[in-house]
Structure formats: structure tokens, C-alpha cells
Amino acid sequence: MFAFDALAHSTDLNEKKLHQIQVLAWGVELLQTYYNIGDDIEDNAKTRSGKPCWHQLPGVGLMAINDADLIRSFIYEMVKNNIEEPIACTVQNYLNETYFALNIGQLMDISLTRSNDFDHFTMEYYNLLNYFKSAFYTVKLPILLALSICNLHSKEAYMHVDKVCSDLGILLQMQNDVMDYVDSKSASLKTSSDIQNRKCSWPAVAFLENCNISQRKEFESCYGQSEPEKVERVRRLYKEIDILKIYRQHEQKRYESMMEQIKQLPVDSIPSKEFFVKILNVLQNYTEDISPSKS
């Protein structure tokens, strides 16, 4: 909705267009629901947003897989019944690309979770993983859909969105990962479980880049274990290297990199430089709720 408002011309602001962008906004929400149901099943998660996961509800179980598929199919029906061609085809292509990216990200995530080799816990792998798993559907897809409904989509516009918004999507995932450590009871997250599930999370990757040999040995013996004392030991190891300070340094570097990418865009780029700065400022506020006092 924000992207559409920032991109639309006055001629686009009619009742029909507003209805269509609302349909697409709900489509994005349903896509996230579809993804979350499957993600929770694969992670064996218990709660999300303070409530039982869908597959944990009485009488649901693995029928949640079929429910998720119904949600995905319903997104297609929403687009078919509310968006005309050729825009509908463009929208469906972006949605299909998102599903594909999510599946690649999930495969990378689960494969590394099952691995015993911490040498693959690198920033390069983390960035690639979340380029597919997080950046596409959280930031890129909503902007691409807004471009489509405004008839502004093009290969050049796609390249500009990909260039700037991939880093922004990864940054939001970094923040999410850090919140899993800082505030395990946050209502915005599912049950804190990155440590127990051996996730390639940002704190784990950053720790391995900044720890000493003895700390690494201790980390390797505790990470991916469900015993409360081992989980707590990993959290203390994070605190020993001041993981929040390291996060803020990485966050600042990523913001500076994104601003530099925006400056390098053509003067007449679509979306414009000003558009990307607006998006960056809006989403930057999302990362301001990490407080060292919480840890």
C-alpha cells in the first residue's frame, strides 16, 4: 500500500485501482500465511505471535499442508477475479518467482540445519540464504506488485528493486534473528528456537566470525541442543562478544551500502531515488526496537 501510494499518479487514484491494490496487499499477507504454515511444520514450532501454530491446533495436524495449498490457490483466484490482463500475468509471474525463491531458501535453510559442519555458517551463505528466503517476499514482492498495478514494471525497474531491496530484506531478517536472542518472548516472533533448531541465524554466524578457539568449541558443543542449560550457554557466549554492538556496526554498514546503491541509480530511474529513500526510512524504524537493555 505504501509503495502504491508513493508510485501512483493522480489518474491511478480511483476506486477500481484502490480495490486492486488492496487485493494484492491481501495476496501478500496470504502468501506469508502460506509460507509460515509450512515453515512452522518444518521447524516443529509450537507458537507464532503468541498463539499455537496452525498445525498444532486440535484436529489439524498435517492437514495444515493441504490448508496451506488452499491458501496459495486462493491467491491465484483473487488475482484472476480482480486484475485484468496483461497486468494479471505480470502479477502471477512475480508471485511464482516468489514461491520459487522461498522454496530455494527453505531448502538451503533445512540443509544447513541438518549439517554438522559449522564452516558453512558464513556471512556469504547467510546473505544468499536470506536473499531467497526473506528479501524477495518481504520487500521486493510488494514493490514489484505496486509497479505492476501502476504499469511501471520493466526489466530496468526490476533490476533497480533487486539491487536495493535485497540488502534491505536481508537486514530485516538480521533484525528478526537478533530479536530471537534479545527478546525470546516478543509477540512478533514465533517461539524463540533458532539456537535449539541449529539455524543459520545472524547471531550464530557473527559469533563464529568473532569468537576465539575455546568459545567456538563451547558453541559447537551447545548449539543445536534443546537442553535449557546449553541454550542459555549459547546466549551467554553471544553476550561475551557483545553481539548487539556487532549487530549495530553491521546494520550501519548495510545502511551506508544501500544509500550508496541508491545514489548510483540513474537520475530518471523507476522507481526513483526518492522512492527508495522513503522505503528505507520507513523500514529503518522497524529495526529501532532492539535495545541492549533487553538482553
Describe the structure in your own words.
The chain is mostly helical and 295 residues long. The protein has one domain: Farnesyl Diphosphate Synthase. 68% of the residues lie in helices and 1% in strands. It has helices at residues 2-7, 15-43, 63-82, 87-113, 123-149, 155-182, 202-210, 213-222, 228-240, 243-263, 273-284, and strands spanning 47-48, 51-52. Strands 1-2 form a two-stranded antiparallel ribbon. Strand 1 (47-48) and strand 2 (51-52) form a beta hairpin. Helix 5 crosses helix 6 and helix 6 (155-182) packs antiparallel against helix 10. The longest helix is centred in the first third of the chain and has 29 residues, at 15-43. The chain is globular and about 65 Å long. The chain starts with a helix and ends in an 11-residue tail after the last helix. Residues 185-190 and 291-295 have low confidence and may be disordered.
CATH class: Mainly Alpha
Briefly note the structural class of the backbone: mainly alpha
Radius of gyration, whole Å: 20 Å
Give the topology string: H per helix, E per strand: HHEEHHHHHHHHH
